[in-house]
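Re: [ENG-882] Designed sequences occasionally contain unexpected residues at chain ends

Forwarding the minimal case from QA. C-alpha coordinates:
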Protein backbone atom coordinates (compact mmCIF):
# COMPACT_ATOMS: atom_id res chain seq x y z
CA UNK A 1 0.00 0.00 0.00
CA UNK A 2 2.08 2.84 -1.40
CA UNK A 3 -0.39 5.63 -1.00
CA UNK A 4 -3.02 5.90 1.61
CA UNK A 5 -6.31 6.76 0.00
CA UNK A 6 -9.50 6.48 1.96
CA UNK A 7 -12.34 5.42 -0.20
CA UNK A 8 -15.99 5.24 0.77
CA UNK A 9 -18.68 3.40 -1.02
CA UNK A 10 -21.67 5.26 -2.38
CA UNK A 11 -25.18 3.89 -2.13
CA UNK A 12 -24.88 2.41 -5.60
CA UNK A 13 -21.76 0.47 -4.63
CA UNK A 14 -19.33 2.84 -6.34
CA UNK A 15 -16.12 3.86 -4.65
CA UNK A 16 -16.06 7.57 -3.68
CA UNK A 17 -12.83 9.40 -2.80
CA UNK A 18 -12.64 11.33 0.50
CA UNK A 19 -12.37 14.71 -1.21
CA UNK A 20 -15.70 14.10 -2.91
CA UNK A 21 -17.31 13.50 0.49
CA UNK A 22 -15.74 16.69 1.87
CA UNK A 23 -16.85 18.71 -1.15
CA UNK A 24 -20.38 17.39 -0.73
CA UNK A 25 -20.39 18.61 2.91
CA UNK A 26 -18.91 22.05 2.18
CA UNK A 27 -22.30 23.83 1.92
CA UNK A 28 -23.12 22.51 5.38
CA UNK A 29 -19.76 23.73 6.71
CA UNK A 30 -20.40 27.14 5.12
CA UNK A 31 -23.82 27.33 6.77
CA UNK A 32 -22.30 26.40 10.14
CA UNK A 33 -19.58 29.06 9.80
CA UNK A 34 -22.18 31.69 8.81
CA UNK A 35 -24.34 30.75 11.81
CA UNK A 36 -21.39 31.07 14.19
CA UNK A 37 -20.36 34.43 12.66
CA UNK A 38 -23.96 35.67 12.85
CA UNK A 39 -24.24 34.67 16.51
CA UNK A 40 -21.01 36.46 17.37
CA UNK A 41 -22.14 39.60 15.49
CA UNK A 42 -25.53 39.55 17.26
CA UNK A 43 -23.86 39.27 20.68
CA UNK A 44 -21.50 42.14 19.82
CA UNK A 45 -24.46 44.28 18.72
CA UNK A 46 -26.32 43.55 21.96
CA UNK A 47 -23.24 44.37 24.03
CA UNK A 48 -22.68 47.62 22.12
CA UNK A 49 -26.33 48.59 22.54
CA UNK A 50 -26.15 47.96 26.30
CA UNK A 51 -22.94 49.98 26.56
CA UNK A 52 -24.57 52.86 24.67
CA UNK A 53 -27.66 52.76 26.90
CA UNK A 54 -25.47 52.69 30.03
CA UNK A 55 -23.46 55.64 28.70
CA UNK A 56 -26.67 57.63 28.17
CA UNK A 57 -27.87 56.63 31.66
CA UNK A 58 -24.62 57.87 33.19
CA UNK A 59 -24.87 61.18 31.29
CA UNK A 60 -28.34 61.73 32.76
CA UNK A 61 -27.09 60.71 36.20
CA UNK A 62 -24.23 63.23 36.02
CA UNK A 63 -26.64 66.02 35.12
CA UNK A 64 -29.02 65.04 37.92
CA UNK A 65 -26.19 64.80 40.46
CA UNK A 66 -24.97 68.28 39.54
CA UNK A 67 -28.54 69.58 39.80
CA UNK A 68 -29.15 67.83 43.14
CA UNK A 69 -26.00 69.39 44.60
CA UNK A 70 -26.86 72.84 43.26
CA UNK A 71 -27.70 75.81 45.47
CA UNK A 72 -30.79 76.58 43.36
CA UNK A 73 -33.76 74.99 45.20
CA UNK A 74 -35.80 74.30 42.05
CA UNK A 75 -32.84 72.68 40.34
CA UNK A 76 -32.00 70.71 43.50
CA UNK A 77 -35.57 69.39 43.73
CA UNK A 78 -35.58 68.40 40.05
CA UNK A 79 -32.18 66.71 40.33
CA UNK A 80 -33.22 64.67 43.38
CA UNK A 81 -36.42 63.60 41.63
CA UNK A 82 -34.55 62.46 38.53
CA UNK A 83 -31.99 60.61 40.64
CA UNK A 84 -34.86 58.74 42.29
CA UNK A 85 -36.09 57.63 38.87
CA UNK A 86 -32.60 56.74 37.60
CA UNK A 87 -31.95 54.66 40.73
CA UNK A 88 -34.73 52.28 39.68
CA UNK A 89 -33.11 51.53 36.31
CA UNK A 90 -31.69 48.09 35.67
CA UNK A 91 -28.79 49.79 33.86
CA UNK A 92 -27.34 51.03 37.17
CA UNK A 93 -24.77 48.93 39.01
CA UNK A 94 -24.54 48.79 42.81
CA UNK A 95 -21.59 51.19 42.76
CA UNK A 96 -23.56 53.71 40.72
CA UNK A 97 -26.55 53.40 43.06
CA UNK A 98 -24.18 54.09 45.96
CA UNK A 99 -22.99 57.24 44.17
CA UNK A 100 -26.59 58.38 43.62
CA UNK A 101 -27.39 57.90 47.29
CA UNK A 102 -24.79 60.50 48.26
CA UNK A 103 -27.05 63.26 46.88
CA UNK A 104 -29.63 62.54 49.61
CA UNK A 105 -27.19 62.91 52.51
CA UNK A 106 -27.01 66.69 52.82
CA UNK A 107 -30.78 67.47 52.64
CA UNK A 108 -31.56 64.67 55.10
CA UNK A 109 -28.76 65.73 57.46
CA UNK A 110 -30.36 69.17 57.73
CA UNK A 111 -33.63 67.61 58.86
CA UNK A 112 -32.19 65.08 61.28
CA UNK A 113 -30.06 67.70 63.02
CA UNK A 114 -32.01 69.98 65.40
CA UNK A 115 -31.27 73.68 65.08
CA UNK A 116 -29.22 75.16 67.93
CA UNK A 117 -31.10 78.45 67.84
CA UNK A 118 -34.68 79.08 66.74
CA UNK A 119 -35.10 81.47 63.81
CA UNK A 120 -36.24 84.99 64.64
CA UNK A 121 -38.34 86.70 61.99
CA UNK A 122 -38.10 85.90 58.28
CA UNK A 123 -34.92 84.07 57.47
CA UNK A 124 -32.43 85.88 55.24
CA UNK A 125 -29.67 84.47 53.11
CA UNK A 126 -26.91 86.04 51.11
CA UNK A 127 -27.34 85.99 47.33
CA UNK A 128 -24.56 85.38 44.79
CA UNK A 129 -23.68 89.11 44.59
CA UNK A 130 -23.68 89.55 48.36
CA UNK A 131 -27.17 91.03 48.49
CA UNK A 132 -29.52 89.90 51.21
CA UNK A 133 -32.68 88.09 50.14
CA UNK A 134 -35.42 86.15 51.85
CA UNK A 135 -34.51 82.52 52.45
CA UNK A 136 -36.25 79.73 50.51
CA UNK A 137 -39.82 79.04 51.29
CA UNK A 138 -40.31 76.23 53.81
CA UNK A 139 -42.52 74.30 51.38
CA UNK A 140 -39.70 74.25 48.80
CA UNK A 141 -37.28 72.94 51.42
CA UNK A 142 -39.88 70.35 52.47
CA UNK A 143 -40.22 69.12 48.87
CA UNK A 144 -36.42 68.89 48.56
CA UNK A 145 -36.22 66.86 51.78
CA UNK A 146 -39.04 64.54 50.66
CA UNK A 147 -37.31 63.95 47.31
CA UNK A 148 -34.07 63.20 49.17
CA UNK A 149 -35.93 60.77 51.46
CA UNK A 150 -37.51 59.01 48.46
CA UNK A 151 -34.08 58.74 46.83
CA UNK A 152 -32.67 57.27 50.05
CA UNK A 153 -35.50 54.69 50.24
CA UNK A 154 -34.98 53.64 46.60
CA UNK A 155 -31.19 53.35 46.89
CA UNK A 156 -31.42 51.46 50.18
CA UNK A 157 -33.90 49.03 48.62
CA UNK A 158 -31.63 48.48 45.59
CA UNK A 159 -28.62 47.89 47.84
CA UNK A 160 -30.55 45.67 50.28
CA UNK A 161 -29.91 48.06 53.16
CA UNK A 162 -32.36 48.97 55.89
CA UNK A 163 -33.81 52.48 55.77
CA UNK A 164 -34.37 54.38 58.97
CA UNK A 165 -38.04 54.64 59.91
CA UNK A 166 -38.11 58.45 60.00
CA UNK A 167 -36.77 58.56 56.43
CA UNK A 168 -39.43 56.09 55.24
CA UNK A 169 -42.16 58.17 56.91
CA UNK A 170 -40.78 61.33 55.36
CA UNK A 171 -40.70 59.72 51.89
CA UNK A 172 -44.29 58.53 52.24
CA UNK A 173 -45.57 61.95 53.39
CA UNK A 174 -48.01 63.12 50.65
CA UNK A 175 -47.61 66.89 51.31
Amino acid sequence: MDSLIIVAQAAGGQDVAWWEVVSALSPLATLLAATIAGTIAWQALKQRSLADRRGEWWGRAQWALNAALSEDPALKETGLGILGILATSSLATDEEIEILSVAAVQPLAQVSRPSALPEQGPAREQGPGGEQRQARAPETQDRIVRRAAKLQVVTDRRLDRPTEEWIRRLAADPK
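QA comment: On inspection the terminal residues look reasonable. The helical segments are 18-68, 73-86, 94-101, 105-112, 138-158, 165-172. Proposing we downgrade this to a documentation issue.
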